[in-house]
User: Which sequence fits this backbone?
């Protein structure tokens, strides 16, 4: 029963990849990657329920923390630049 | 049974939020769709995990993940939208610009 949820989340992740390829500015791509990392956390939780291995959930926790730290680092890097002046 | 129903509703909400991420016009409205995926999709799915596995190791870790996503998701969204504004990305539909008015004072 859990694999259908994995299918739904995988379709959502494919839509996020399309936004990452199309995205006109850099913050669009960062938002798409952050959304996709959240979906990957959901997929890892579903796989840990499917295989009955509770250690995979620790992988999901560490993945969520690393995605958050990477997002903060990229936004702190972008904050002082004047990239899109017209 | 209700846990599996909540997981399926979370998956459908994740698809709806990703479709909004694909269709909205600029960065600031796409961040709303990202909140739908984070809170409405993945957190509802983790609540379904808690209701499915009642007293188990999975339930405790899912509760910790719900608290983590609820804390970190608004912080990350505020950081990336502030960086987008300060690097010069203009919104498509703008009514009032509070930051410019604050800076020119």
Assistant:
């Amino acid at each position: 029963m859990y694999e259908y949820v994995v299918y739904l989340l995988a379709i959502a992740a494919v839509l996020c990849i399309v936004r990452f390829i199309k995205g006109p500015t850099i913050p669009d791509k960062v938002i798409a990657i952050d959304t996709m990392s959240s979906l990957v956390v959901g997929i890892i939780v579903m796989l840990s329920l499917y295989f009955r291995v509770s250690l995979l959930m620790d992988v999901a926790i560490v993945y969520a923390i690393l995605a958050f730290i990477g997002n903060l680092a990229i936004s702190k890097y972008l904050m002082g630049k004047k990239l899109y002046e017209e | 049974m209700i846990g599996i129903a909540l997981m399926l509703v979370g998956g459908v909400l994740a698809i709806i939020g990703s479709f909004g991420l694909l269709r909205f016009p600029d960065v600031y409205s796409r961040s709303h769709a990202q909140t739908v995926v984070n809170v409405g999709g993945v957190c509802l799915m983790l609540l379904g995990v808690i209701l499915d596995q009642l007293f188990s190791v999975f339930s405790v870790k899912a509760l910790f993940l719900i608290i983590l996503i609820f804390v970190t998701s608004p912080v990350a969204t505020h950081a990336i939208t502030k960086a987008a504004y300060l690097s010069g990305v203009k919104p498509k539909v703008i009514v009032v610009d509070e930051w410019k008015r604050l800076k020119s004072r």
In short: Chain A is about 80% helix and 0% strand. The longest helix of chain A spans residues 26-51. Helices of chain A lie at 2-22, 26-51, 56-78. Chain A touches chain B through 53 residues (CB under 8 Å).
